Amino acid sequence: MDTTKRLWVGLGALLIVSFSIMLWIGRDIHQTAPPIPDRVVGESGQVLYTRADIDTGRQVWQSIGGHHNGSIWGHGALLAPDWSADWLHREAVAMLDMRADAQFGMPFDELDMAEQARLQAQVEPLLRTNTYDPATGTITVSDQRAQAISQVAAHYISVFSNDPATAELREAYALRENPVPDAEHRRMMTAFFFWASWATVTERNDETGLSYTHNFPHEPLVGNTPSASSFMWSMFSILFMIAGIGLLGWHYAVWHAKEPKVEPPLKDPSLDIVVTPSMRAVGKYFWLVMALFLTQILLGATTAHYQIEGQEAYGLELANFLPYALTRTWHTQLAILWIATAWLATGLYLAPAMSGHEPKAQRFGVNFLFVCLVVIVVGAFAGQWFAVMQKMGLSHNFWFGHQGWEYTDIGRFWQIFLFIGLLLWLLLMGRALWPALRRKDEMNSIAGLFFLSTVAIALLYSAGLMWREDTHISLITYWRFWIVHLWVEGFFEVFAVAVISFIFVRLGLVRGKSATINVLFATIVFMAGGVLGMFHHLYFAGVTTGIIALGASISALEVVPLALIGIEAYDTWKNGRATPWMQRYKWPILFFIAVSFWNLVGAGLLGFLINTPIALFYMQGTNLTAAHGHTALFGVYGMLGAGLMLYCLRGMRPERRWLEGLLSGAFWSFNIGLALMTVLTLLPMGVLQLEANLTHGYWYARSADFMNRAIIDVLVWLRVPGDTILAIGAFLLALFVMSLWLGPRPVSESSRRQRELAQERGQESG
Predict the structure, then answer these.
(1) Is 357 helix (H, G, I), strand (E, B) or coil?
(2) Residues paired with 71 in a beta bridge
(3) CA angle at residue 587 from 584 to 589, to 5 degrees?
(4) Which residues contact 513 (CB under 8 A, 6 or more apart)?
(5) pLDDT tens, 196-252?
(6) How far is CA 306 from CA 238, 302, 382, in A?
(7) Is the Cβ–Cβ distance between 633 and 598 less than 8 Å?
(8) Residues in Cβ contact with 579 at an 8 Å cutoff, skipping those fewer than 6 apart
(9) What is the pTM of this model?
(10) Cα(33)–Cα(39) distance, integer angstroms
């Protein structure tokens, strides 16, 4: 068995084992998730909440934006509080104040440390003891706790109404006035907040002394502090990472230097590629990419500005018709949509180029898929507006409105529509790639990996269809990270490696056999940490210690391939200077190099900063996670999407003169803008939140008192330079794309060659 076959067997075995473990753990989560009670009652028999209250309350929370109005268990928006942490703190303080008044005749915060410690010792077991009875489905609370629950509920009922007493809080949270108009819906939503908080402090009945969310969030008043296992598995995680880096370094030292040098061809081999009708039809996708990108930046600026004015933008009462939850929803979704569209378009362009085959009606399929994408975006966004503005009833929200789960929050109807669209994309890719898959040449394995990633990207979206409206939140979190994590940190990586390798092989800069072995090996390395590494997102989502141990151990391996990112960047740079005609690909190459840089910074340094259980315990849901998210998503996948788009446009519009100044301005604006946004705002704000969490608890790091400090306002305003520069870059890139259709059109060698080949092969490319 040769090296290529051994690597294929190894990859297949790795994927089978990894996904088997994933499914087994899903079963474990289903069995051990925090129970949802049929009733919550006081000792005197008073019914506080029912299962119907909790379920309907969650629906109400989802309909107004869900994760985009604060967060639950650390997942969601960063502006409003984490409702589970905020409720827990308010309930604990209410109980402490009642006991302080009864025993000392004064509020809790006026007592000395010894008296406070005495009261904390009384209240902590009342909150941490698990009083859920599986036989009756009942949670029983003391009458004093029932009184505290009523007080906290009254506060939230006021916040989500138009009560003048909490108007300042609504402004601080960027909530529009009267966000939940129905009083009964407001009461039910407090039931969901109570249950989410109950799960964070109530200990499992397994003698571990840990709550259902592994003691997250940090709340010193009630003993929610990091567990011994969090420290232990964080230490092992670091050891596994060091070991993985050492093994990968040994592999490169032994094998990388053995690769024979390649003499690049005298002429650009891509000039021999005929741009078929379907490939040319992909052009409109790149127009859509730029439209979505520019809109995303505009909404991002609006969302960031809400941190300053709360309900307004420069005096305009924007929250009345475009509230924060909606601008943030669209901002995050558009980030994924424009990047994904660029990647889908790249696949549709490269598949016929890779195989040299244009299937019948391929152009019609490309055009039809484009129309579907536009309909999905417009329809899904319209449904979310009606939902957040409470103009759509709860009975229709799940199917056509706002599901409330970050990154997977479009209505179920639109999810199904998008899944069908991805299957159509898979069909178009498969029929165009089929001849390349059947050929037994040096490109066969690269074509196979390219198609494998296409299959995975299309089929993995079906994970978003695995939950119902009433599915447990722990299971929803599990399934939605099948998409969020496995797309971004799994098969998008494979897609990217296969595409870039194909480009360099096609240009004659890398041998096909060497590229095949390198791509297969890189895929195994990515998948080793990328699949099971998903579980680091679930540390505090109601899972057991075993899952945390697995997530910490395996997710450390995600950093391993990034340790040698300098070699990848150097190889890319070297290929870009291999021959004079590679100057035609200067800007795609530079974007690929930027991908390597941000992979190291965003995915590597900032990713591992928050990756271990002990780090994430204090950093989840702070701006340190936002720093990782922005630099990894835009810095890696956004830059790569731009680079791939430019490579496709070079072949698609060969007769047009490239306006190098626009591309230079866009490239440096993207990198400088992203760096300034990260260094001036996200990192310092995240560090301040980390300090606040360590000192006072997670509730304070996310509270209005903390977020309204003058230093936070200054840091938010410091986003303006970076955001502005990045926006200028997007505008310049959009102008460049427009210039390829509307700008000067001198006839070049490449355009003449394209026409000659088209005539020779009898398929005029237009």
Answers:
(1) coil
(2) 76, 82
(3) 90
(4) 4, 442
(5) 999 999 999 876 789 999 999 999 999 999 999 889 999 888 888 888 888 877 777
(6) 38, 6, 21
(7) no
(8) 264, 265, 266
(9) 0.91
(10) 17
